Amino acid sequence: MAAMLQVAITLLVVVAAGAWLVAAWNALAALRLAQKGDKLATLRDMHSMNFARIGERSGPAALLHCNRYAYAFIVFFGCVIAAAALGVAFKLQSGPAA
Question: Dihedral of CA 11/12/18/21: which sign?
Fold first, then answer.
């Protein structure tokens, strides 16, 4: 059982790292579509997940990257929470510390 939990946690970490890379790649892609003077405002709006403003400023092509960013963000934090829960389950399953 312990080996299975370790494999599950490792897979969650790999998926979380992949989701983080997808989020970073799409954030940079949305920034590349922003106008020269709007890059900082676009980054701020991406941080607050105000994608409608990014779409107004950069056009509908940026919204595709924003949607991918949002999904990757959700997957990343879902994996982090699931890995933490599995870590607690692993600790409880292994018994008290000696």
Answer: negative
pLDDT, one tens digit per residue, over 11-27 is 999 999 999 999 999 99
Other Cβ atoms within 10 Å of 16 Cβ, number? 20
The one-letter code for the residue type at 91 is K
Query: Where exactly are the structural domains of the chain?
Result: 21-92
Mean pLDDT of successive 10-residue stretches along the chain, which has 98 residues:
81 94 94 88 87 88 92 95 88 71
Sorted by sequence, the CB contacts under 8 Å of residue 2 that are 6+ apart come out as 90, 93, 94
- Sign of the dihedral through C-alpha 37, 74, 71, 89: positive
